[in-house]
């Protein structure tokens, strides 16, 4: 599986060697839980798409081996309480993992402009880790193969491999680290909104009932490949939704409101708490966004795939 490059469109390298990169989010259009694994995780089949909703990382090489992280001055103040800046953050863990693999003696100062909320089911932290691995491979000038980066990604989190990979959409299996790219056709638009509280992934999975007859993502991937937005929606699915709603009653209230007034089918990404609806075009997406913001009195994100 090849990786996208740290010099992807939107990445900028300053004259002083500083590198600025985007860090993507994802949506789960399909998520089935197949079994409980011996390692405590769950065997999954999920269809993920990379979206335009991004964080930004600014990285500068240090001469010593320290790895530091801070939020940008323009990051919303609310993130200061929810985003750790120590060794528990996936950004620092990714940097340390690459240091250990390569023996690199350089460090890095990283400034994170955070837009994607944590505990949202959008893979914000996983995208941060993927972007860090790619950017530091370039900044530290390390001869690390894509395969080695993917091995590191699998140690960091279940969504990191997809966000590290060079694809818009994929069927992901195992814990999510087995990536099977899907050649998605056309432009896809989604509107996403998050309740005030996020969901704890472990708690949501603990409430999941593993089905005797799991659903398949095959029909959905066929419609993605053919660009059939309307037909694809009947195959969107997330096995974790009922467990997530039981953890987060605000999700249920928001889902009911969206279903009643805009009369849109609403789905959940990952283990939540982000909810999303699909639009047939950019113009329709803009109108739905306005309607949802008026209805819910919350920020609504327009996500392009």
Account of the 3D structure:
There is one protein chain. The protein has helices spanning 90-102, 124-139, 146-156, 160-164, 201-206, 218-226, 229-232, 241-247, 249-260, 282-296; strands at 12-13, 19-36, 42-62, 67-71, 107-113, 169-174, 178-182, 189-193, 237-238, 267-268, 275-279, 301-304. The chain is of the alpha+beta class. It folds into 2 domains: 12-180, 2-Layer Sandwich (Ribosomal Protein S5, domain 2), CATH 3.30.230; 185-304, Alpha-Beta Plaits, CATH 3.30.70.890. Strands 1, 2, 3, 4, 5, 6, 7 and 9 form an 8-stranded mixed β-sheet that branches. Strands 10-11-8-12 form a 4-stranded antiparallel β-sheet. Helix 8 crosses helix 9. The protein is globular and about 55 Å long. Residues 6-10 have low confidence and may be disordered.
Write the layout of secondary structure elements.
Layout: E1 12-13, E2 19-36, E3 42-62, E4 67-71, H1 90-102, E5 107-113, H2 124-139, H3 146-156, H4 160-164, E6 169-174, E7 178-182, E8 189-193, H5 201-206, H6 218-226, H7 229-232, E9 237-238, H8 241-247, H9 249-260, E10 267-268, E11 275-279, H10 282-296, E12 301-304
Parallel strand pairs: 2-9, 4-5
Antiparallel strand pairs: 1-2, 2-3, 3-5, 3-6, 6-7, 8-11, 8-12, 10-11
Beta-strand portion reads 25-35%
Number of strands: 12
What would you call the shape?
Answer: globular
Q: Indicate the low-confidence ranges by residue numbers.
A: 6-10
Helical/strand content category? alpha+beta
Q: State the CATH topology of the largest domain.
A: Ribosomal Protein S5, domain 2
Helix content: 25-40%
Query: What do the pLDDT scores average to?
Result: 92
Number of helices: 10
CATH-defined architecture of the largest domain? 2-Layer Sandwich
């Amino acid at each position: 599986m090849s990786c996208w490059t740290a010099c992807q469109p939107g990445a900028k390298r300053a004259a002083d060697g500083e590198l600025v990169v985007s860090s993507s989010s994802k949506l789960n259009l399909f998520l089935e839980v197949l079994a409980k694994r011996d390692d405590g995780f769950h065997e999954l089949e999920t269809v993920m798409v990379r979206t335009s909703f991004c964080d930004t990382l600014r990285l500068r090489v240090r001469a010593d081996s320290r790895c530091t992280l801070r939020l940008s001055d323009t990051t919303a103040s609310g993130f200061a309480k929810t985003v750790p800046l120590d060794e528990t953050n996936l950004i620092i863990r990714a940097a340390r993992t690459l240091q250990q693999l390569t023996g690199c003696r350089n460090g890095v100062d990283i400034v994170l402009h955070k837009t994607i909320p944590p505990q949202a089911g959008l893979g914000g932290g996983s995208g941060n880790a993927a972007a860090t691995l790619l950017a530091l491979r370039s900044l530290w000038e390390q001869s690390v193969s894509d395969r080695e980066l993917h091995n590191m990604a699998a140690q960091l989190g279940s969504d990191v491999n997809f966000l590290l990979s060079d694809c818009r959409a994929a069927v992901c299996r195992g814990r999510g680290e087995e990536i099977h790219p899907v050649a998605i056709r056309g432009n896809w638009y989604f509107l996403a909104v998050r309740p005030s509280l996020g969901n704890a992934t472990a708690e949501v999975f603990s409430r999941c009932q593993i089905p005797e007859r799991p659903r398949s993502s095959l029909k959905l991937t066929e419609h993605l490949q053919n660009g059939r937005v309307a037909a694809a929606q009947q195959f969107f699915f997330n096995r974790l939704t009922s467990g997530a709603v039981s953890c987060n009653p605000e999700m249920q209230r928001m889902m009911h409101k969206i279903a009643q007034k805009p009369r849109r089918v609403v789905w959940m990404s990952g283990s939540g708490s982000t909810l999303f609806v699909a639009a047939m075009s950019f113009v329709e997406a803009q109108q739905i966004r306005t309607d949802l913001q008026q209805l819910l009195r919350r920020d609504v994100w327009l996500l392009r795939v």
